Amino acid sequence: MGNSVRPGAGLLSGGGSRTGFTRIVLALVWLIIVPTVVLLVLGILMLVFNRASLNIVFGILLVTLVGVLATGTVLALVFLRREANVSKLQSDFVSKVSHELRTPLTSIRMFVETLQMKRVSSPDEVDACLNVLNRETARLTQRIERLLDWGRMESGKRVYERKLERAEDIIREAIEAFDVSHVGRHEPVNVELAPELPLVEADRAALVDALVNLLSNAYKYSRERGKIRLVVNADDKHVRIAVVDQGIGIARPEHRRIFEKFYRSNELLSSDVEGSGLGLAIVRHVIQAHGGRVELESELGKGSTFTLVLPRPDAVKRRTTRPSAAVTQV
Asked: Which of 121, 221, 230, 316 sees the fewest Cβ atoms within 10 Å?
């Protein structure tokens, strides 16, 4: 019970907004209210004592106050604009998620009603309805699990159980999970594994989920469902897992923002593909929790390459056990 997470915690609970508004209040207090109070006190002292030295101090503080007021106003506007953008993103997110959840629910309700009213008679038709119900239920479960998983990540309650794993096993499981969730896909994923890959220290389920997210994006945004490649190799320090697609690509100015929660670029929005804007944020969170990073190479119209860069456990061990330099005695 102590590790339970309220659905949507850290997602739409307003935690980020509260933090932003707290910053605005603190900026207003320290940059505007405090100098104003100090200036008011000095003004009262000038009226009481009427000393020339206080006039000089008052002049200096007046100039300072004007600068501080201007700075505080600019900062307040910046924070307010940022919070307005976050609020808009959250509003868009609610709309997108509502649509994503409504679609499978509508299908489930329709086929349940079909079965209840006995509109199908043959066993084949019943099996077809049951298959659709199973697929839509799995789809709905996946959407909800993604929301809950992100809520756990944001609240710091996502636990990663890392242990040594074979990269080949992680890739195989990711491909199997991707195939199950994309039944009917004709083009197979072209997997290219370098020989003698080292072990990686990873939470297998989390890493598989990150790869499935990348493969799903590659499939959704590939023009005419172009070929998808999954390339795995290693160097002296890292294991690199790259998902390469021939999709619509991402403009260079958006390479950083694409990993922000709720964010979807204009090109992705115009492609009319379902998405909550959480997939890449989850991928980055998972890889950073493994001590790695996500690299992106993409241009509009030329596809994208997302690379998961994971540290090699044996490289870390070699670095920590490296012997000290020998001292030569003369």
From this structure: 121
Cβ atoms within 10 A of the Cβ of 140, count? 17
Residue type, 80: L
Taking the CB of residue 313, how many other CB atoms lie within 10 A of it? 17
- Buried b / exposed e over 52-90, threshold 16 CB at 10 Å, is eebeeeeeebeeebeebeeebeebbeebeeebeebeebb
pLDDT exceeds cutoff 90 at 93:
no
User: Among the listed ranges 52-56, 59-63, 175-179, 298-302, which one has the minimum average pLDDT value?
Assistant: 52-56
Helix axis angle for 167-181 and 123-154, nearest 10°, is 130
Higher-confidence position of 318 and 68? 68
Nearest to 247 by CA among 225, 270, 214: 225
Query: For residue 238, which of 206, 202, 267 has the smallest C-alpha distance?
Result: 202
Go through the chain and tell me how many residues it has. Answer: 330
Strand, coil or helix: 90: helix
DSSP string, 108-131: HHHHHHHHHTT---SHHHHHHHHH
Q: How far apart are CA 104 and CA 138, in angstroms?
A: 9
Please, which pLDDT band fits residue 70 given cuts at 50, 70 and 90? confident
Beta-carbon contacts of 261 under 8 Å, excluding residues fewer than 6 positions away, are 89, 150, 277, 278, 281
pTM: 0.60
